[in-house]
């Protein structure tokens, strides 16, 4: 039996009012993302990739069309239902780490599990397991100010992954990192994708990210201009692809 797609987008448009009428950030998007994909929305600034990522994450609503995420029609969810979807099944990684500065690494990663009201020992086991996976178990008691930028982003990844979400949405996750740290972060996410089966969807215009993607969905002026499943050899070789 074929697994149900993680994301199904049917005829989605997102319009924003402007003085002269409206601006179409997205127009008639059709897209399906299968379970376990490591894919990305790629394009220059203003192409609509972050808008689409926010719609998928139920942080915004489409003007028209249908978005189904993990079997739920996002546009039909009320505020509480959308919050429940994000809390229970989605993980978010942003270019700014958004760590709580007064909390330790452990406490920052633990926070999503507190929202899920997980029992204390299970929380501890889950936090230490994911910190081990991202190579930060020895920094559990440190605070964000004591970490490098790359380490802070690994904490953000751990926080997104600790509840084993079905889908992780990553918006320019390497924008504030140098090349070496970017590659470490991407290798970490690729390993988590392979080990845990989590679906990853990026929004990016960074070649360092693109070279790791198994599927590249190019957006231009709010429309899908290209959708390519990349050869595993090209991914392994780290070939950016020259998409825009």
Briefly summarize what is shown.
The chain has eight helices and ten strands. It is 35% helix and 27% strand.
Proportion of beta-strand residues: 25-35%
Q: What is the CATH superfamily label? A: P-loop containing nucleotide triphosphate hydrolases
Major sheet summary line: 6 strands, mixed
CATH topology: Rossmann fold
Structural description of this entry:
With 244 residues, this protein is α/β, with parallel strands linked by helices. It has one domain (37-63, 78-237): P-loop containing nucleotide triphosphate hydrolases (Rossmann fold, 3-Layer(aba) Sandwich), CATH 3.40.50.300. Helix content is 35%, strand content 27%. A 6-stranded mixed β-sheet has the order 6-7-8-3-9-10, with helices on both faces. A 4-stranded antiparallel β-sheet has the order 2-1-4-5, with helices on one face. Strand 1 and strand 2 (21-33) form a beta hairpin.
């Amino acid at each position: 039996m074929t697994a149900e797609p993680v994301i199904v987008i049917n005829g989605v448009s997102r319009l924003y009012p402007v003085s002269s009428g409206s601006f179409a950030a997205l127009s008639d998007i059709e897209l399906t993302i299968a379970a376990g994909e490591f894919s990305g929305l790629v394009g220059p600034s203003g192409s609509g990739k972050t808008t689409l990522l926010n719609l998928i994450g139920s942080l915004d609503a489409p003007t028209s069309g249908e978005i189904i995420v993990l079997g739920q029609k996002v546009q039909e969810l009320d505020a509480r239902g959308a919050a429940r979807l994000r809390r229970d099944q989605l993980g978010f990684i942003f270019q700014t780490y958004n760590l709580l500065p007064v909390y330790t690494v452990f406490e920052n990663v633990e926070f999503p599990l507190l929202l899920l009201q997980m029992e204390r020992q299970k929380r501890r086991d889950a936090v230490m397991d994911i910190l081990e996976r991202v190579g930060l178990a020895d920094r559990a008691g440190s605070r964000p100010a004591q970490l490098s930028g790359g380490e802070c982003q690994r904490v953000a990844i751990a926080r997104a992954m600790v509840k084993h979400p079905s889908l992780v949405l990553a918006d320019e996750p390497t924008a504030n990192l140098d090349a070496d740290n970017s590659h470490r972060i991407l290798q970490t996410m690729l390993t988590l994708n392979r080990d845990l089966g989590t679906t990853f969807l990026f929004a990016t215009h960074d070649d360092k990210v693109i070279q790791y993607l198994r599927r590249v969905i190019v957006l231009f002026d709010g429309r899908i201009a290209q959708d390519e499943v990349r050869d595993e050899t090209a991914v392994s070789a780290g070939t950016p692809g020259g998409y825009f």
